[in-house]
Amino acid sequence: QKEVEQDPGPLSVPEGAIVSLNCTYSNSAFQYFMWYRQYSRKGPELLMYTYSSGNKEDGRFTAQVDKSSKYISLFIRDSQPSDSATYLCAMTTDSWGKLQFGAGTQVVVTP
Amino acid sequence: NAGVTQTPKFQVLKTGQSMTLQCAQDMNHEYMSWYRQDPGMGLRLIHYSVGAGITDQGEVPNGYNVSRSTTEDFPLRLLSAAPSQTSVYFCASRVGGRTSYNEQFFGPGTRLTVL
């Protein structure tokens, strides 16, 4: 079983809707959690970075971490067609440690 | 800054051929790594380096070699290509050491097909 599980989608939503993405993990030692966005045929780019449990907001993006449930989420409000991409979760035990990635969820926002 | 660059963008090999995927970064990052990305598998770490002259294996190292003679460059060598190595390869770099912020910067990728 993979350490990090993520539904590959695709997830199709109309423009303006809220996109909800999530990952589950099995290693309770993970403390640092990241979301990467990857456009088609491009490299991933860091979107959100959180430490331990709690929420973090950046513009239209909100990342949530629930360590007790080993569950992390990413919400995108007022979604735009430009948000169409694959979103990968990643996590590590130490901030300098090796990352474990989820499989990525493909999101399609239709105008 | 160009960031992380990779060459070639695309490559087709025959089984048994060897080749080197090039990776360079101009951010003076100590830590560099190679990942492969396959459908449904996410990014898996092949090899990584914490500085010039120091490399180590990741999750899926078999069939690949690396070396790090300079801070800037981190080439990945396929010794004898196999169809199972058909994938998209990403190079990444970040600041080294025990930092509180672990942002990795990824290159644009190399799409490799092995026939």
Write the layout of secondary structure elements.
The complex is a heterodimer of chains A (111) and B (115).
Chain A: E1 4-6, E2 11-14, E3 19-25, E4 32-38, E5 45-51, E6 54-58, E7 61-66, E8 71-76, E9 85-92, E10 100-101, E11 105-110
Chain B: E1 4-7, E2 10-13, E3 19-25, E4 31-38, E5 42-51, E6 54-57, E7 64-66, E8 76-78, E9 87-94, E10 105-106, E11 110-114
Parallel strand pairs in B: 2-11
Antiparallel strand pairs in B: 1-3, 3-8, 4-5, 4-9, 5-6, 7-8, 9-10, 9-11
Structure report:
- The complex is a heterodimer of chains A (111) and B (115).
- Helix content of chain A is 0%, strand content 55%.
- Chain A has 111 residues and is mainly beta.
- In chain A, strands 2, 4, 5, 9, 10 and 11 form a 6-stranded mixed sheet that branches.
- The mean pLDDT of chain A is 94.
- Helix content of chain B is 0%, strand content 50%.
- Chain B contains no helices and 11 strands.
- In chain B, strands 2, 4, 5, 6, 9, 10 and 11 form a 7-stranded mixed sheet that branches.
- The mean pLDDT of chain B is 93.
Provide tags for this entry:
heterodimer; A: 6-stranded mixed β-sheet; 55% strand; B: 115 residues; mainly beta; 4-stranded antiparallel β-sheet; 0% helix
Task: State the oligomer.
Answer: heterodimer
Class of secondary structure makeup of chain A: mainly beta
Largest sheet of chain B: 7 strands, mixed
State the share of residues found in helices of chain B, binned by percent.
Answer: under 10%
The dominant shape of chain B is globular
Mean pLDDT level of chain B: 93
Helix and strand sequence of chain B = EEEEEEEEEEE
Could you say which overall geometry of chain A the principal axes of the C-alpha atoms support? globular
Strand content of chain B: over 45%
Biggest chain pair interface: A-B, 25 and 25 residues
How can the largest sheet of chain A be summarized?
6 strands, mixed
**Approximately how much helix is present in the residues of chain A?**
under 10%
Radius of gyration of chain A: 13 Å
